[in-house]
Amino acid sequence: MKRRTFIAGAATAGSLAALGSVAYGAAAEPDSTASKAGHVHGVTAITKVFGDGQKLIAVAVEYDQEIDSSTLSTSTFAVTDRTVTNVYANTTAALAERGRDGRYVVVELSPDDTAAALWVTGQGSGTPTGTPSTPTGTPSTPTATASPSPSSSSSSGGAPGGGGPVVGDTTPGGTIVAAKATLTQKGTVTTTRGTRYAANDTTLTTSSVVNPIVDDFEQFTFDDPATGQTLKYNLFVPKNYDPRKSYPLVLFMHDASVVNVASEGPLVQGLGAVCWASPGDQAKHESFVLAPEYGSVVIDDTYEPSTLFDTTVNLVKSLTKQYAIDRKRLYATGQSMGAMMTLGMNVKHPDLFAASFVVAGQWPTEQVAPLAAKKLWVVVAQDDTKAYPGENAIMQVIQDQGTKVATAVWDGQSTAAQFAADVRNVKAQKAPVNYASFQAGTVVPAGSRVSGHMATWRIAYTIPGIRDWIMSQSQ
């Protein structure tokens, strides 16, 4: 295995680093108590991954002295093409529930801004360039052009067919946009010593970036001697890793929109990988998280995968030898193409995974009888014209084999508390296979161009109760 070094500042579609350099203040105005020159030491972009992808949600301006947080307001800074929602001081370049005096001024930005999106697809993950930004009412700055994603009728994003991507296709369906922002100080910034840095029109540009959770993953490559394939992958190692202990591992497999982008693609296109590595999940379930980045489509509607399918299995087995990973607590999950791979791996390797979370996928019913012996949580949208009937057919086979299936229909617009109750109701049925479908018309936001298929995983990975159930299973 070889570590891949991510080069910050590259001006490519795959770059997660911020671009540009900090612009410093000009000479002080006569009524200012201090010169504005040199007071800003740097500007950091702060990102967050949402169900529909990574977004730029804040910038942190570092000053040469501690700033009085109580003197700041949303009018203190203006950020180009962005809506400022909160401004406060902090001791680090990080978001906080409450401001505290420190050298950093954190300017929070609306994630609903058009220019917030750092993961862009033709299916509404972000907005294509040239579309007006609703919050500001002005056109967004062109940052990237997304490749068209497959049609929803063919399980877009990775369950190909009907003109969609096929095995070996290397065309990415999404683009990673560099995290970059420009801003100006429109109001007075006051230090804790009472020094006033007057407003000015000097443009500040982000020169570094912080990607919470995403930065906790490391990038490697796996050279598989069995298949001859090389596979890029992201790996999260528990922060307090102790080789004398034994840890579970979660394998996340992405959809076709992430094919052949930067190694970090599976970490920024949605929550499927990073949710398991969040501080909250790790506090409950310390685990490894593995997210391969596929350079080409692995499987299509012929259900005959490329050799990357076996390479993925071999990678999992290799990691169990390299780290203190419990072979009885291996878990698989994936969306669309990744969901198909999850199902296929459980069919071909029925003893590999303790439990699997399947999001919007399908598999030939004549092959799925082995799934009746597995522990599964399956989520699909009723709007999904391919995966929904496909999953219904799989559930029927499982039931015909004598395995109990807990079923439920959920509202995709439910609150976190409602989803928690939904999960409890399903778990109360005490079945090894859980099947939840999102009611038709509830997963696609009003006015969105995203398909019901792709909208499914924007919601599915926001429900922690499902992850808790997966992590509680063992062989």
Descriptors for this entry?
single chain; 475 residues; Rossmann fold; 10-stranded mixed beta sheet; 8 helices; 17% helix; elongated
Query: What would you give as the CATH superfamily of the largest domain?
Result: Alpha/Beta hydrolase fold, catalytic domain
Along the chain, the helix and strand elements come as EEEEEEEEEEEEEEEEHHEHEHEEHEHEHH
Tell me the number of structural domains: 2
Number of helices: 8
Beginning-to-end CA distance, first to last residue = 28 Å
Enumerate the strands of the largest sheet in spatial order, edge to edge or round the barrel: 1-14-15-17-16-18-19-20-22-21
Fraction in helix? 10-25%
CATH level-1 class of the largest domain: Alpha Beta
What name does CATH use for the topology of the largest domain?
Answer: Rossmann fold
Largest sheet: 10 strands, mixed
In brief:
By secondary structure, the chain is α/β, with parallel strands linked by helices.
Characterization of the model:
Strand 18, helix 4 (337-348) and strand 19 (355-359) form a beta-alpha-beta unit. This protein is an alpha/beta fold and 475 residues long. It has two domains: 2-143 and 178-210, Immunoglobulin-like (Sandwich), CATH 2.60.40.2180; 214-471, Rossmann fold. It is 17% helix and 27% strand. Strands 1-14-15-17-16-18-19-20-22-21 form a ten-stranded mixed beta sheet, with helices on both faces. Strands 5-6-3-2-13 form a five-stranded mixed beta sheet, with no helix packed on it. It is built from eight helices and 22 strands. The longest helix is centred in the middle third of the chain and has 15 residues, at 308-322. Residues 3-37 and 124-162 have low confidence and may be disordered.
